[in-house]
UniProtKB/TrEMBL annotation:
Ranges for domain Major facilitator superfamily (MFS) profile: 217-412
Regions that span the bilayer: 12-36, 48-68, 80-96, 102-127, 148-164, 170-190, 211-231, 251-271, 283-300, 306-324, 345-364, 370-390
Subcellular location, principal: membrane
Location(s) in or outside the cell: Cell membrane
Protein name according to UniProt: MFS transporter
The organism's taxonomic lineage, starting at the top: Bacteria, Bacillati, Bacillota, Bacilli, Bacillales
Keyword set, alphabetical order: Cell membrane, Membrane, Transmembrane, Transmembrane helix, Transport
Xref: CDD domains: MFS_MefA_like
GO function terms (MF aspect): transmembrane transporter activity
InterPro entries tied to this protein: MFS_dom, MFS_trans_sf, TM_effector
Organism the protein comes from: Lederbergia citri
GO cellular component assignments: plasma membrane
Length: 412
């Protein structure tokens, strides 16, 4: 850990991602609260997520191949400042007492256009500035710090909304995203001129896809995550009505529930960062997802708010254990000149299920109930991981060493 903190470039990235994490958490909390307060509709909760995820996926599709050509630092800065500007416009609408529902959708679309380029650029930039033997420690620290911000954000957001309304939350998120962009300015450019190739979008995107053909286990992991994130996309918009309607909670209790998940992710980050790298990565990754599915079943039928907090905490632990091992697996397998486009394809695969889940989850909850929805989603996650466990391709998750891959030649 000391070596990471002595790395100036990593420290600025670490602080920037921390500020970005707080701003992003406040953004999700504020938009969710405003749309449910104005409409009271579960369908609207799902549709606001769809309005964010559809442009998110389109940007992933068309920007991914160019992330290896662009300066990754400037890409992250643009993402932070564009989102800050979008929420500044929202604050102006609120201050003029002219806020309408369509304004929330417009801001959600704008954020969906800018946010998706931050994460793949950040993942690729981390691999640029850290040696391979420090990646899992660096990823653990970055993920952990982001989750600390997400831990503080919902609880603080709930308190602020209960006491003062949504405007203070919006002011803080605008400042956080702005500060994140300025911190990133302190780092050097990641652009390497010798690696820049003036190729067409199709050629570059195809190279990213070819990596998955050469190393197919990552394609299968992406397909698995598409199913898991379908469930996540259906559940997340329903957490606000779940707490306020099903369990009779308040804005603060909703924030605390969201924070419990983030607190679990912090605990999982500490656990992952202190233990040795797992010998059996397949068991760790698939086992974590299976337990998350089982916990969903408990969340569906508990009548106790305190038990829902405990379950949310447990889900956070197992979610981050999977995420850290999955990210590290990619960073070690993907050649440096392909990281941006391969990471973009990865995020595209993983997020493709989210808008469908959000749209169908809201409809399903309106037709039946949130507990039944959570039951179906828990069974879907558990069954998906069981099927993957018996698929021999997932045995490659536990392979040791680094595979040298010539993507253009299609050879290992």
């Amino acid at each position: 850990m000391k070596e990471l903190l002595m790395n100036r470039k990593f420290v600025f990235l670490w602080l920037a991602q921390g500020a970005s994490g707080l701003g992003s958490t406040f953004a999700t909390f504020a938009l969710s609260w405003l749309i449910y307060e104005m409409t009271g509709s579960k369908m609207a909760m799902g549709s606001i997520w769809v309005s964010f995820m559809l442009p998110n996926i389109l940007i992933q599709l068309f920007s991914g191949p160019y992330l290896d050509r662009w300066d990754r630092k400037k890409v992250m800065m643009f993402s932070e400042w564009f989102r800050a500007a979008a929420f500044l416009v929202l604050v102006i609408w609120i201050s003029m007492d002219q806020l309408e529902v369509w304004h929330l959708y417009a801001v959600s679309i704008a954020v969906g256009l800018a946010q998706p380029i931050f994460y793949p650029a950040s993942m690729a930039y981390v691999a640029d500035i850290l040696p391979k033997d420090k990646l899992i420690k660096g990823n653990s620290l970055l993920e952990g710090t982001g989750q600390v911000m997400m831990l503080l954000g919902p609880t603080l957001g709930g308190l602020l909304i209960s006491a003062f309304g949504t405007e203070p939350v919006l002011y803080i998120l605008i400042i956080s995203l702005g500060v994140s962009g300025f911190l990133l300015m302190m780092n050097p450019s990641s652009k390497k001129k010798q690696l820049v190739k003036r190729e067409s979008w199709f050629t570059q995107f195809k190279e990213g896809l070819q990596f998955y053909r050469v190393y197919p286990v990552l394609l299968w992991v992406g397909m698995m995550m598409m199913m898991i994130n379908f469930s996540s996309g259906a559940a997340q918009p329903m957490f606000l009505p779940y707490i306020t309607d099903e369990l009779g909670g308040t804005a603060f209790q909703y924030g605390l529930f969201t924070s419990a998940f983030s607190f679990g992710m912090v605990a999982g980050t500490v656990l992952t960062g202190t233990l040795k790298e797992p010998e059996n990565r397949k068991l760790v990754m698939l086992g974590s997802l299976f337990i998350s599915g089982v916990l969903f079943l408990g969340l569906a039928w508990t009548p106790f708010y305190w038990l829902a907090l405990v379950i949310s905490f447990g889900q956070g632990i197992f979610a981050i254990i999977f995420n850290i091992n999955n990210t590290t697996l990619y960073q070690r397998r993907v050649p440096e000149h392909l990281r941006g486009r391969v990471f973009s394809v990865r995020v595209l695969l993983a997020q493709a299920g989210v808008p469908f889940g959000a749209a169908l989850g809201g409809l399903f909850a309106e037709m039946f109930s949130i507990p039944i929805l959570f039951t179906v989603l828990g069974c879907l996650i558990a069954c998906t991981t069981i099927v993957c466990w018996f698929n021999p391709i997932f045995d490659k998750l536990s392979e040791k060493g680094i595979v040298n891959i010539d993507v253009k030649a299609g050879k290992k």
